[in-house]
Amino acid sequence: MQEEGDDDLAVRIEVLSSSPLAPEYDMALVGRDELDPDDRLFEADGLSVAIDAKSASLLEGTQVDWIETVQGSGFKFENPNLKPIGSEPVTGPLVDRVKQVIEERINPGIAMHGGNVTLVEVREDVAYLEMSGGCQGCGMAAVTLKQGIERMLTEEVPEIQGVVDVTDHSTGANPYYQ
Predict the structure, then answer these.
(1) Which is deepest, 102, 125, 166, 169, by most CB within 10 Å?
(2) Residue 175 has pLDDT above 60, yes or no
(3) Angle, CA 157 vertex, CA 154 and CA 160 arms, to 5°
(4) Boundary residue ending a domain (47, 78, 109)
(5) What is the largest CA-CA distance in the chain?
(6) Which residue range(s) make up the domain with 19?
(7) Domain count across the chain
């Protein structure tokens, strides 16, 4: 801000995606005339910070730090409102029904290829799954997920409207591709 030579600037922060897999934030240096009338403006130590009105509740309690590591430097958001997938215990009647379909219908079908699926979490109407064994890194994993696993889960458990694969397909003991 000092390099800009303009005292009428603010840092505007917005949550672009609240995805539990990869939340995305936007930070921009803007003139006060560029702020949205609904933005929430905070002043601290000569720094003006504007928070997008839609993002305000998602950013409540968030800490933003500048970090420098061997891999590079940048802003790091520690946001207590956007919990990573798998950070909460997986329990409840809906979870039990999803696990039952996985154990009784899905895993026996993919076991012949050395595959296995594990429920990581259910959030709202989405089941987050991790694939392992022969499914991890398999070129057909996306097809298996959409045409097999998702179809079975949404038919058997109508509350589930979508399935997301959280597998790191490039790692593991024997991934098919790296």
Answers:
(1) 102
(2) no
(3) 60
(4) 78
(5) 66
(6) 9-78
(7) 2
Q: Is 173 within a domain?
A: no
3-class secondary-structure state, position 137: coil
Would you say residue 99 lies in a domain?
Answer: yes
- The enclosing domain of 48 has a CATH number of 2.60.300.12
Over the stretch 90-133, which tens digit does the pLDDT of each residue have? 889 999 999 999 999 999 988 888 888 989 989 888 999 888 88
| pTM of the predicted model over 0.85 | no
